[in-house]
C-alpha cells in the first residue's frame, strides 16, 4: 500500500508552498525577512530570511553531495531580498528535479558516506531526498509560527488544503 506514495506529490506540495510563501513575502515586504528567529535557537539563523535561504541551500547542497559536485556557498545570497531568495529556490528545485530524472534506479537504496560539517553521515539517496522535502516542510511550519507570533498570518498551508492529489477547499461564509 505504501508503495503508492510518490515523491512527486511532495515535490508538488513544496513547489506550491514556495509559490504561496513567495507571494506572501512580496505582499508583506522584505522587512518581514528581518524578523528575529528568537533568542532560543541554535545560533545558525538570526532572522526569517536566513531560515528561508537555509531551506533552499540545504536542498542545493544535498543534491550536490549526491552528485559528487562541489558545494555551493550560499552566504552571498542576500537574506533580505524576496526575489533573489526565490530565484535561488527555483535554481535549487531545478537541480533536484534534474537529479531525480537522471539518477539510476539501481542506486536509490545504496548507502553513501558523507561528511557534513564535523559529522559523518551514511544514508541512501532515497532517504536524503525524502529528508530534503521533509526538512523544507518542517522549516516552513517554523517560519509560519514565528510570523504568527509577530501577528502576521496567512492562508492555510497544510497539505490537505493544497491542490496536490486533487480535492477542494473553500471557506464557507460564517453563519451568525
TrEMBL record:
Q: Where do the annotations place a divalent metal cation binding?
A: 54, 135, 139
Q: Per the similarity annotation, which family is this?
A: Belongs to the DinB family.
Cited SUPFAM superfamilies: DinB/YfiT-like putative metalloenzymes
One example of the protein's molecular function in GO is:
metal ion binding
Please give the name of this protein. Damage-inducible protein DinB
Sorted UniProt keywords:
Metal-binding
Instruction: Supply the Pfam families for this chain.
Output: DinB (PF05163)
Among InterPro entries, the record links this protein to: DinB, DinB/YfiT-like
